[in-house]
Structures are given as structure tokens and as C-alpha cells.
Amino acid sequence: MGLRPLGAEPIFVADDRAGAELALRAHLFDTRRAEVLAVLPAGEEPAVELAAFVSEHVAGALDTAFHPLEAAARLVQEDLTIVRPAPQGHVLVAGAVCFPSGWYLREKLGRPLMGVHDPIEGYAEEIGARVERFFERLEPDRPFRRRNWFLYDDPSLFQPWDPTNEVVVTAANAGQRVFIRSEREVMLRLSGTGAIVFTIRTQQVRLASLRTRPDVAAAMASYLRESPEAVHRLKGVAPYLAEVLSALDEMAA
Ligand code: HEM
Predict the structure, then answer these.
(1) Are 237 and 152 in contact (CB under 8 A)?
(2) Which one of 31, 72, 143, 188 has the lowest number of neighbouring Cβ atoms within 10 Å?
(3) pLDDT tens-place string over residues 192-210
(4) Pocket test for ligand 1, best of 6, 111, 117 (most atoms within 8 A of CB)
């Protein structure tokens, strides 16, 4: 599952893109609120608790003109989701998600995590039950984290649709045209309502940035070579796998 304790690392990480990303988040909430904010009745109380938690953590004031979850998500570069236990498993009850990687918040809202992960091959058989157990046991004040990565040819942060692959990726331009898009995800239990918060921080760099890390380029190339096509599709690299492999080999050499 790739989980490890967060330890002393911060839950929310501000970087030099904060200004631009917070402006983009505000714009998305203003112009496409129905796509980026969704809260079920079961999410209302935890949303209030989460908003106070975020505000305290980043020492930012909540704008009371907005729903508490939106107000919180306007303060940080992280997307915020809330899950709660129900008879059918842990259910996604609220989300403020401005930077989705190929999924629609409204399609997932109200679904148990097994259903949320429907398109992920192997999830139900291999990790679904373990994820449920992990969330059952998660203790307040002991957050965990995981990280994933994709290889997208479109650096749009708001990207609920699947990659359109409109860019022509060649071995020569892959370093510039392909982006390593990675989510730093933190899971924590709120102490009051007991709801679980799952934060998603989307970060991206050009593939060419691996020029300074030949070891990582080599590891990524062998991972891709050993993986089945389902993984290539999940990572977004299927349409330009050969071109990316050739660029990675060059950087690894
Ligand atoms: C321990 C917890 C979890 C594990 C191990 C896990 C695992 C995964 C994996 C393996 C993927 C495929 C992409 C990737 O590698 O990240 C994925 C995608 C995804 N996960 Fe999770 N997940 C967890 C928790 C959650 C939670 C709490 C949510 C609630 C919002 C969530 C929502 C999603 C969504 C929306 C996708 C994209 C699905 C799609 O493309 O349609 N995950 N997850």
C-alpha cells in the first residue's frame, strides 16, 4: 500500500508555487464550484472540525462567506477529502478537490472506497480489505502518508478527464513534454468526530528533471519494463511508453 507514518513531517506543505496555486484554487471554487466541492450531510460536522484544524495548522483565517470545507481548501495547496465508516465500508462523504488526476468528485461521492477505486485494477483483490483495516485502526495524532506517480503529457492541475494525449511525444522531446505528476497523500483521524481526512497534494516536474538523478531514471525505466500494460495505462504513459523509455535510458546512461 506504500504507507508510512508521517512522523515529524508537516501535514500541509507550502512551496514557492503557493501564490499561483491558491489563486487557481480560488478561481476554480468561484467558477466551477459544483465540480470541485461536494459535501454529504454526514460530511458537514467533520468539515467544520477539519476547517478549524487546517486554520490552526497554517495560521490562516477561514473566510466565513464560504462553506467550511471550501474555506479550508482555499488556505492550502492540498486537496481535502473526508471519509467515514459505514456498514458497507469507509465512504467518501466530502471533498474539496481542485487538482484531480483523472477522476470526478461527483462520481465518487457517497461511495465506499472499494467503489471509489473501481477503475484501479487489482485494488479490490489485493489491497481493498487492507485499506479498510488500516482506516479502522488509524489513531488520532498518528498520521500516515503515501505517494504515487503518473506520467502525463498535460500539466493542467485541474484534470478530472483522462489524458487526451494531444501532444506528440517523441524520444527527443519526452523530457520536456512529459511530466512526472505525483500526489503526496496524508491520512489522519480527527479527534472530535473521529472522521478520517485524506489530503492530496499534487506536485509535478518535467521528466527531464531526472537528468540529475540517473539512478531514479534507471529505476523508473526498469519498473515500467517489468510492469504489465494495465500499469502503463494507470500511470498515463501507455500512449508514449517507448518514447519515455528511450528518454529515461538516455538520462540513466
Ligand atoms: C491507504 C489508503 C489508500 C490506498 C492504499 C489507495 C490506493 C490507490 C491506488 C493504488 C490508486 C491508483 C493510483 C495510485 O497509485 O495512487 C488509487 C487511486 C485513487 N484513489 Fe486511492 N487509496 C487509498 C485511499 C484513498 C482515499 C481515502 C480516497 C478518497 C478520496 C481515495 C481516492 C482515490 C481516487 C479518487 C483514485 C483515482 C481513481 C480513478 O482514477 O478513478 N483513495 N488509490
Answers:
(1) no
(2) 31
(3) 999 999 999 999 999 999 9
(4) 117
